[in-house]
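Lecture 7 notes: from sequence to structure.

We start with a single chain of 156 residues. Read the sequence below before looking at the structure.
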Amino acid sequence: MKSQDVVSWKEAIKWHSKVCKPIENPRYVILSNGFMLNQADKCVHNKFDRPNKAIIGLYVDDMLIFGTNQNQVDRKFLSSSFYMKDMGEAEVILGIRIKRQNKRITITQSHYIEKVLKKFNYFNYSPMSTPSDPSVKFMPNSGKRCNTSSLRLFDA
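Now the structure, written as tokens:
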């Protein structure tokens, strides 16, 4: 690890600890503005005020804010405590490309896959079919937990 990486990580830890201090601390900006910590992922905060919804995702020193309207995405309460740079609508986050078209959002990792293929010198190989049927349509999550004991990594 380069020394610059160490400095970046140290700064990220300081930043994240300021954002994620216990609720008793008045500087805990997100919780003090009505957001709840997501129990499944401690880097996600939710605020669901009918009919408005907002989600804040934190990763190291990156923040992604989603909302049902502009007021929910308003960052005044955050920018009053932190230096922030608005990068506009996200195009790529954590290796996932976000594409908006005709009121639809599509997420893909094709550019990440291409990067990995190039890195390991497999870019000129022919594509292979996926292990699943491409005609199968995804259904909304039913909320039921899956049995994780049978999960395993797929190895081509």
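The CA atoms of residues 130 and 136 lie 12 Å apart. Keep this in mind for problem set 3.
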